[in-house]
Amino acid sequence: MRGGTPSTEDFGQRLRLLRARAGLSQEALSHAAGVSVRALADMERGRTRGPQRRTVEALAEALGLDGDEASGLEASAAQGRPRPRPVESPAEGPSVPVPSALPRDIQDFTARDTALARLLDLAQDAGASRPVVTVVAGQPGLGKTAFAVHAAHRLAPHFPDGQLALDLHGMDTEPTTPRDALARLLSAMGVTDAAIPAGTDDRASLWRSLAAGRRLLLLLDNATDETQVGPLLPGTGPSLTIVTSRQALAGLTSVHRCDLALLRREEAVELLTRIVGPERVRAEAQAARDLADLCGYLPLAVRIAGQRLLSRPHERLGKLVARLAAEGRRLDGLQAGSLQVRAAFALSYRQLSADSRTVLRRAALAAGADFSPETGALLAGLSYDKAVACAEELTDAGLLQSDPTAERYRFHDLLRLYAAEQVEAEDGPEARAAALDRTTEWMLRRATAAALHFDVEHDRTAPSGDPDPDPDTAPTGREEARAWLEAERAQWLAALRRAHDTGRHRQVLDTAKAMHWFSDRTQHWEQWVEVFRRSADSARALGNRREEAAHLNYLAWAHNLCVHDPRSALVSADAALVAARHSEDGLQEGWALGYGAGALHRLGRTEEARTRLRAAARCLALQDSPQARLAELTILNSLGTLLRQIGRPAEALDIHRRSEQICRAGVPGRTDELIALYHAVARQQIGNDLAALERWPEAEPPLRQALASFETAQMPAWTEQARLDLGLVLRAMGHPEARQTLVAAHDALAVLRSPRQDEAATALAALDQMTTGR
């Protein structure tokens, strides 16, 4: 024996001497052996006299012991391990518990470091008067059992009195009863069959008495509900119980919760690497990332993909990626032997009530990343209150995820695919179409009513009232209307598509027209191109040339300002001009000339743009309607802007002053709030004209006034452009607010995907150069 092996039979003393001989601190040995510092200290102090064989083997390897030394250390540990003996009757007193073998650990277990560290802290905090219980919950496929088993193996050295594992079969048609579970626990503790009491309460009492004072680790896997778990929990003693369940088990009190999340992308790739080997992943690194994405970072799905590839060593990762890319075949591809994602979901689905099953599968028909209870109710054909109750049941079952702040729910991608399969299997095309039609009708009526809050031409006091399908729950003002339209954007847009595709063209036109003024406040939404393309198509289908002209103009506006596509804008504006002249609509003719001019200007065809703008101004001046005055204001502002940009700022200033005079005079039939917005646009342009004339101090006040007006109106696209204009003026003046203003404008314009973000970046770079003197 090298170095003189300690001959003492006391495990703690032997371990301490071996560590000292190896020149290792407790921290270093802890890290090398994978044993906590606290557990190591307990062993050396004699508090833990007989650690388990696997722990001793890890210590021996970390200490570099040879075969004889390792055997000697194991023999010392064996001397301190408890010897089980059967209990003939409860009267004989508590028995020494029999350590029960844990299920096999997964060698390629990946991630979950934070959750494991939290469990280790809990294990160390367990005291005589406070047994610790932690609930590991979450959706199917998160790897709750794998995590719990892995954690139990890691924590085993902290619980030398035994580790007991029990599958409660919560997903079976007949889960394990508390009475039967207690019998198994008592038997594992050495109680003979004859000595086990008959009643559940008596069994629970005996179990608690045997567990009291023992450092036991109890793993209760696959629990169904609180009533099954409650009788199995120790009442006192330094034990740790890990409960896994697909249910939230919210009724369990004084427990810690470990809600496992999806893996991060890099963690999912790491798990795949551990299963199939680093060589295959390195050879197809992008395919491995794509595979993790298609698995939705769900551990079960990643494991199945890995096991499938492992069984086919010559198959490329890219081949499986191609198969899973087709949504209709993805669940078919995610199976390897008895491992199936679909089967894991089906277990939970079968446990649900009939109404909750309906809500789950019909919710797969909802558009967007999440859905509201209203949408769930409409698709399922249930009342709102019933749909909320079902959604909560689904959340507790881990089948839906609730939004942390709003009353909204979302699917995991693979669960959505499973739910969609159930729609096809259980509902059929007629029920599916009826659900979508019902939802489309309701959504478009609500969207139209909400958008009309922003329509300056809509009389909300008219006897006909709002078209909202449920006035009691309808948004009551602009703020609520905006919030609803933003939250349900995907849903009402999907409803608009369905209405268009099924020939309900009048409803499409009514909704799009109502959206016109609201779209001005949210011009950073790219969806407006689709909205107004469909409405123009619906007008054409109805043979209404006047409405076709109006909606083609809306479409030209969207191409110009929402997606910055002047070529498409010019095509739409020219088509609107033809339809307007055909229907002899001077207002729409003026708008078409103006939108066409805007597109030509963006294409660099400046002289053609100026000619169209002057023609638009003449056309609109002949009209005497309030709508024509507002259109004239827009055209004059555009004309002045063009003149400034071609180097004629003095002419531009005169035109913008004319716009300001119209605003100050007011427009009959239009609210002061609306005219204030037009006035803000005029002030913004006046400020820019003065800046072009290098009259910087005069330019600052109108730009600040315009910025304040747009902020009050909550019009981000307008607000941030005005902020940029102000920042440019402040920079020219050497004002201390210049950098702060330009940074804020740049960041916001980037979020809005505005082309002017580059202008802001250039201005910031120039300002930095001025500041540093370089």
Q: Would you kindly provide a written description of the structure presented here, covering whatever features stand out?
A:
The chain is mainly alpha-helical and 774 residues long. The chain has 37 helices and nine strands. The strands form three sheets. The protein has a five-stranded parallel sheet, sandwiched between helices. The protein has a two-stranded antiparallel ribbon with strand order 6-7. The longest helix is centred in the middle third of the chain and has 24 residues, at 428-451. It is elongated and about 105 Å long. The termini are far apart. Mean pLDDT is 90; it is low at 1-8 and 83-99.
How is this fold's topology laid out?
Blueprint: H1 11-22, H2 26-33, H3 37-44, H4 53-63, H5 67-80, H6 113-125, E1 132-137, H7 144-155, E2 163-167, H8 178-188, H9 200-211, E3 217-223, H10 226-229, E4 240-245, E5 256-259, H11 265-276, H12 278-283, H13 285-294, H14 299-310, H15 317-325, H16 327-333, E6 335-336, E7 339-340, H17 341-351, H18 354-363, H19 373-380, H20 384-396, E8 401-402, E9 409-410, H21 413-426, H22 428-451, H23 478-487, H24 489-501, H25 505-521, H26 527-542, H27 545-561, H28 566-582, H29 586-602, H30 606-621, H31 626-645, H32 649-665, H33 672-692, H34 696-712, H35 716-733, H36 738-751, H37 757-772
Parallel strand pairs: 1-4, 1-5, 2-3, 3-4
Antiparallel strand pairs: 6-7, 8-9
